[in-house]
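cron nightly-structures :: item 1 of 1
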Amino acid sequence: MYLQALRPEGWIKSVQSKSCLKRGNKKTTWNKSRHNCKLSRGYLTTIPNAKVLSEIFVATVVVILILIVVVVVVVVVVVVVVVIVVVAVVVIVVVVV
């Protein structure tokens, strides 16, 4: 059994020495050596490592940016809620007193 790790946008890199396994219902095809592969028009193509690493880097940066945006939105929402609660408490105290 040959284990594989999926990369962003359909990239495939196997853990074993035989590297490129075409996935799906088409015929299984292997390359003889360790390569990074991607399906192109139904055929496996060997891709340089630098291009794979570039796509992984871009995907990582995008995920980090999304997380930063989510954290900023959550912080803004919390601050707005706290301000509303404080203003409401002050108004209630002023009206009651």
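cron nightly-structures :: done
Residues 1-19, 21-35 have pLDDT under 50 and may be disordered.
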